[in-house]
Amino acid sequence: MQTIVFASQKGGSGKTTLAAHMAVQAGLAGFGSVAMVDTDPQGSLHSWWKMREEAMPALIRSNADDLPEDLERLRNQGHRLAIIDTQPAVTEAISEVVRHADLVVIPCRPSPHDLRAVGATVDIVEQWQKHMIFVVNSATRRARITSEAAVALSQHGTVAPATLHHRVDFAASMIDGRTVMETGPDGKSANEIITLWDYIESRMGRINQVPMPYETAQQIGDANASFGSRNQPAPPTPEGLQAQPQAVPAGNGLRPQGATFGRRFASDAG
After folding, report:
1. Can you tell me the distance from the alpha carbon of 167 to that of 107, in angstroms, rounded to the nearest whole number?
2. Which CATH architecture has domain 2-269?
């Protein structure tokens, strides 16, 4: 069973909405049995799930202490994927949840405050040397700050080649336990979710094929090793980010040794 953790220090990043949509889309795409795990004490994902008419995806509530046992139980039940929602904070509990991730997804709205807040979450991910991707969420189409946010994020990790734009249908679909794929399957929002899931699924497949840790990549002197590359690439255009996944750094987002991510990122965010 693979595990995806959705984490963000800042509230309002769209973490819970994104986790719910990815879980549903994974099932619709035929990925296999999907279980959601709500570790947020507020229980927003659980509240959404209780309103669903569909039985899938499954959901359990958990916490950092019980998570290892709960994940093992889900694995024994035959689930192929666990999607974990977390509280908007940076705590020891969040660190323990990230510890169990195969991939960490960090949603980020295109604003200076959101960009600066990303650093603390990334530091936790890097502490456990986990794969991670950024998702630009709730963006305004053709706004300059959207492309600037994507470029800034791409200097510090992989940016998903699918930007999610701000539309009312995302929030409206969640009111009664559904998603945009169920309320408007032919709409733009649904297409963005489908594109994002396709990328995440392919990324999960690559994770299984690349076991080399960051330190090993450094030791053998391979500056382009898939875990170790942190060279500053030329910033991709917004079109490149959305249409050409290969234009975005394909590492796991591990930072080089030196200054903390938060300080470096704050300077990029202006």
Report:
1. 16
2. 3-Layer(aba) Sandwich (3.40)
